[in-house]
Design goal:
The chain has 515 residues and is α+β, with helices and mostly antiparallel strands. It is 27% helix and 21% strand. It is built from 14 helices and 22 strands. The protein has a six-stranded mixed sheet with strand order 15-19-14-18-16-17. Helix 7 packs antiparallel against helix 9 and helix 13 packs antiparallel against helix 14 (458-475). The protein is globular and about 70 Å long.
Length: 515
């Protein structure tokens, strides 16, 4: 067997300060903190301090110890053995053991978590030879298996609380119990979420912080004022309007970084409900692509904090293929496609009226929805923008209650982990968000994704993924827009903030405030 054993990330030995309170922005307010049930960005950021995965990942996407201290894999790629950290307890004082890992990966996550369902569908068995050992046996090789254990992909949940219950309605979802360095103290709806130090945390001497407050600040101007005035110490994702980021770069008390999003590689798109007309016709979907100026979106809406997407795989993700059909702005092609499918203009110049569910993540996303509305009107498509909150948006996505919808999703370093889930016909699961909610089905696409995930050699995987990207870009099941480069802005007194490829979604057990 070959050993994969990595030392924990080093923390600078100087100037570490015990104590203090960190204030961060969360926008929008998350619908839950139960990370296994919901993976919205705010849930990941807060839940990542409460829950933990077996592994985390450095900026080059190499696995690092989490709740697992070491791991081995067999030469045939079919058996993975994890040794767990010692002395780990749940927030209620019960011991964390291998039986919790078995329950989480074989029962809980496959039922409620879209990515985990796909990742762990490759399992033949998962067993616990003893309380500190877990053995995963696969039915066939799954090349990115070690990438499946990041905290939002596979948050460990307590078996003694969830076994035999309805996972989605368990009361513990409101009072989450994890193994992380922070525990939920108070949630004052509309104001803040307060996490407090876990004094029984398994890493000796950690965490450094006493408390973390996630301040709910819906208004973008107020978020900028809160950051600049020192009311909050950290902003991330799209908290600060992108046109304002350069101003913060010029202020001496702040650091601005795009690091910490490597594992996520977020990609924004328009989701088409392919069950409904006219979204069921690929000519309509292609016409939408030709009608949108994605360079404008990059430069004028995202202010350069993005890259034009070419298809379903981000250029920052393994096996990205650039050799695909381009969709430059071309209104004549868009109109010709709509004419060809018989979607002709009426006397009012309108071919069809389409409802678009906007993403409730701030003004940048609102401007994107408005831009889509204006652009599609130029080719005779009337767009009605529908607004909702984060919980409503998730529910509508999960229940296929949309015609078009603005979304972004993360890729987790490998197409088998974060891309295929959106297109595999086997992952069409009503009621569960971030599955194949568009209803797209293509047997050849399914076949290529399955072959690529199980291929042992990288050159074979690259070939399969190149083929599947070409097919998808021709079919356009989604309208891919941009690869997002989120900025994290933080006060310089905050140290060790971004230490891994999951950035602000990390546990923060080594974050401290310098005097």
């Amino acid at each position: 067997m070959c050993m994969a054993l990595v030392a924990a990330s080093a923390v600078p030995a100087f100037a570490q300060q015990r104590g203090g309170t960190l204030n961060m922005i969360v926008n929008p307010e998350p619908p839950t903190l139960m990370l296994g049930l919901n993976q919205l960005s705010g849930v990941q950021m807060i839940g990542g301090k409460i829950y933990q995965g077996l592994l985390t990942y450095d900026s080059n996407l190499n696995p690092q110890p989490g709740l697992a201290k070491s791991w081995t894999s067999s030469e045939d790629g079919l058996t993975y053995t994890f040794k767990l950290q010692e002395g780990v307890k749940w927030h209620d004082g019960k011991p964390f053991t291998a039986s919790d890992v078995v329950f989480t990966t074989s029962k809980f996550l496959p039922e409620v978590h879209s990515r985990a369902r796909n990742n762990f569908s490759h399992l033949a068995s998962v067993t616990a030879p003893d309380a500190s050992t877990v053995v995963f046996k696969l039915k066939e090789p799954f090349a990115p298996f070690l990438g499946s254990f990041e905290v939002s992909s596979a948050p460990m949940v307590p078996r003694h609380i969830y076994e035999g219950t309805d996972f989605k309605t368990n009361p513990a979802n409101q009072t989450p119990i994890g193994t992380g360095p922070f525990k939920l103290k108070e949630w004052k709806k509309g104001a803040y979420i307060h996490l407090t130090r876990n004094d029984n945390y398994w890493k000796s001497g950690l965490p450094y912080l006493d408390d973390i407050y996630f301040q709910v600040i819906p208004d973008s101007a107020s978020r900028a004022v809160a950051l600049e005035s020192g009311k909050v110490d950290v902003s991330s994702f799209s908290d600060i309007e992108l046109f304002d980021v350069n101003r913060f770069k010029s202020l001496p008390q702040f650091e601005v970084t795009n690091k910490g999003y490597e594992f996520l590689s977020p990609l924004a798109w328009i989701e088409f409900n392919t069950r409904s007309k006219p979204m069921d016709d690929k000519r309509f979907r292609q016409a939408v692509m030709y009608a949108l100026d994605r360079t404008f979106i990059r430069d004028k809406i995202w202010f350069g904090h993005a890259k034009v997407a070419t298809g379903p795989v981000s250029s920052a993700t393994r096996f990205y293929g650039a050799d695909v059909k381009p969709y430059p702005l071309d209104l004549k092609k868009a109109e010709a496609l709509l004419d060809d499918m018989g979607l002709v203009k009426g006397k009012d110049g309108v071919r069809a009226t389409i409802k678009l569910v906007g993403l409730p993540y701030g003004e940048t996303w609102n401007r994107l929805s408005e831009y889509v509305r204006q652009s599609l009107s130029k080719v005779g498509l009337r767009v009605v923008i529908e607004s909702t909150d984060a919980a409503g948006w998730t529910q509508r996505l999960a229940n296929w209650d949309f015609e078009m919808l603005v979304s972004y999703l993360t890729q987790y370093g490998d197409p088998a982990l974060g891309v295929s889930r959106t297109y595999l016909s086997s992952n069409i699961k009503k009621g569960i968000p971030y599955t194949n909610t568009s209803g797209y089905s293509n047997e050849r696409v399914d076949e290529l994704f399955i072959k690529a995930a199980s291929a042992v050699k990288d050159e074979d995987r690259k070939r399969y993924y190149a083929d599947v990207q070409k097919l998808l870009v021709e079919d356009v099941p989604l309208g891919w827009l941009i690869e997002i480069k989120f900025p994290t802005i933080y006060n310089k007194r905050v140290r060790n903030l971004v230490t891994t490829a999951i950035g602000v979604n990390e546990s923060f057990d080594s974050v401290y405030l310098a005097k």
